[in-house]
């Protein structure tokens, strides 16, 4: 088996000199819970002001423009999300930062978990070069179902939710986008809405509180919203408390901003083992991975644009050459920057022409209740217009041309975190422009690019 894994050195960046936009407001996100009868009830203590079935997006330049320099400037958060920095982890830092492991709400959750049943699996170590240290780990027997070592997706332990990594229905493209909400995604989301396409959107907690209207738009459009951790780190290298915090505070961010609490999550870089899965299971979360990787995040940096386009074309050909005659697949793509979103709009018409179903993962798995809340549902398999070949044929070319023309391609200027399985971004790709984000003023998605520019990443390939 050919195994790919990308690992980055986790380097915390001190974010200084930014102004608090809402520190004088009283936060609506504060939880008063001090005890929990069972950990799975944690989401019931989130007092969101958002009705997920009745979201209104304010018509401000940042939500209506297709100019990234306009979209990615500071705006006041919506009235139904009051951000108080004292009640959240520091942006892009481990979610235990800012004293968040000691809050009454987090302690209530932590104490409700029976940690005596947690898998006795060591926290992974990083090498000095930023790669994961696999020294001494038997990748052949793979006792911990460590995806980074073996691409294992079926836990070796009972009581741990099994991963979703492919769509079972033939000729199905499971559509997923990581690392949102991106501040400059208006044209991309306009395109998806015009074409009636629904995707699984894996949102990073720091991005959700930074760009709340972006997250609300994803929910309003009916996309399948899922958790992508607070700070996009290699989860197996974090302690139990840190793993729990990364998931919990992202769940809270998504709930407070969109009104829903996901039951699905995706680990950054796919780095998950049975210890991390067990903790996620305590929150009612199931891991979603992938079986095809476009490496779109690397286009124009460690991979040429032409190489990524060729990968897209190869995957599209699989829809007509019989590769997926008896099954489907889940594809890893990203809402990172204008390059990845432009690539998506360029190839989606071809994807829909080649595959019978182009749908989100919840739909391909026929999961009609993808949130803890029972009030928000997703249409069952084959009920979506996006899965219809007739719908795919209607005006796709015009829509993608119009939307793509409005996007300024520039991966460095808007880039957020990088999933995937190849080399990381070089320091030269760090952005030059600085903008601000809702909640607190920071360099927009370029902040994470700078974060990764300080780290090194390496490709590990092994024949098994």
UniProtKB/TrEMBL annotation:
Its EC number is 3.5.1.41. Its cofactor is Co(2+). Keywords: Carbohydrate metabolism, Cell membrane, Cell wall, Cell wall biogenesis/degradation, Chitin degradation, Cobalt, Glycoprotein, GPI-anchor, Hydrolase, Lipoprotein, Membrane, Metal-binding, Polysaccharide degradation, Secreted, Signal. Residues 1-21 form the signal peptide. Its main location: membrane. It is found in: Cell membrane; Secreted, Cell wall. One of its GO terms (molecular function) is metal ion binding. This is chitin deacetylase. It comes from Parasitella parasitica.
């Amino acid at each position: 088996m050919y195994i790919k894994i990308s690992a980055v050195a986790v380097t915390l960046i001190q974010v200084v000199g930014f102004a608090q936009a809402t520190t004088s407001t009283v936060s609506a996100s504060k939880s008063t819970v001090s005890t929990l009868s069972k950990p799975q009830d944690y989401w019931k203590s989130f007092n969101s002001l958002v009705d997920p079935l009745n979201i209104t997006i304010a018509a401000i330049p940042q939500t209506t423009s297709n100019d990234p320099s306009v979209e990615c400037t500071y705006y006041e958060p919506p009235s139904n999300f009051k951000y108080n920095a004292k009640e959240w982890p520091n942006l892009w830092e481990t979610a235990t930062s800012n004293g968040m492991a000691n809050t009454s709400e987090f302690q209530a959750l932590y104490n409700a978990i029976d940690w005596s049943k947690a898998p006795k699996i060591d926290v992974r170590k990083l090498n000095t070069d930023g790669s994961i240290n696999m020294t001494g780990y038997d990748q052949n027997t793979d006792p911990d179902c460590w995806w980074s070592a073996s691409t294992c997706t079926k836990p070796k332990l009972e009581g741990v939710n099994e991963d979703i990594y492919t769509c079972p229905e033939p000729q199905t493209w499971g559509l997923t986008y990581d690392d949102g909400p991106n501040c400059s995604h208006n044209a991309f989301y306009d395109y998806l809405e015009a074409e009636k396409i629904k995707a699984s959107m894996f949102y990073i907690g720091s991005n959700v509180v930074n760009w709340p209207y972006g997250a609300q738009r994803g929910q309003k459009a009916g996309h399948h919203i899922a958790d992508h951790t607070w700070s996009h780190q290699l989860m197996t290298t974090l302690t139990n408390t840190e793993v729990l915090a990364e998931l919990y505070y992202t769940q809270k961010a998504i709930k407070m901003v969109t009104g829903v609490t996901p039951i699905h999550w995706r680990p950054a870089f796919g780095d998950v083992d049975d210890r991390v899965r067990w903790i996620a299971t305590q929150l009612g979360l199931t891991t979603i991975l992938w079986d095809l990787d476009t490496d779109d995040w690397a286009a124009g940096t460690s991979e040429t644009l032409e190489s990524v386009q060729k990968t897209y074309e190869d995957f599209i050909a699989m829809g007509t050459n019989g590769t997926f005659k008896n099954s489907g697949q889940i594809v890893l793509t990203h809402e990172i920057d204008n390059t990845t979103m432009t690539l998506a709009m360029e190839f989606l018409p071809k994807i829909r022409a080649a595959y019978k179903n182009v749908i989100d993962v919840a739909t391909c798995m026929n999961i009609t209740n993808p949130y803890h809340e029972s009030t928000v549902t997703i249409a069952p398999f084959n009920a979506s217009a996006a899965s219809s070949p007739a719908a795919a044929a209607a005006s796709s070319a015009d829509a993608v041309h119009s939307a793509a023309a409005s996007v300024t391609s520039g991966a460095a200027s808007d880039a957020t975190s990088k999933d995937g399985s190849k080399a990381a971004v070089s320091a030269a790709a760090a952005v030059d422009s600085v903008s601000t984000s809702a909640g607190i003023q920071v360099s927009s998605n370029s902040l994470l690019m700078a974060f990764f520019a300080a780290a090194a990443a390496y490709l590990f390939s092994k024949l098994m």
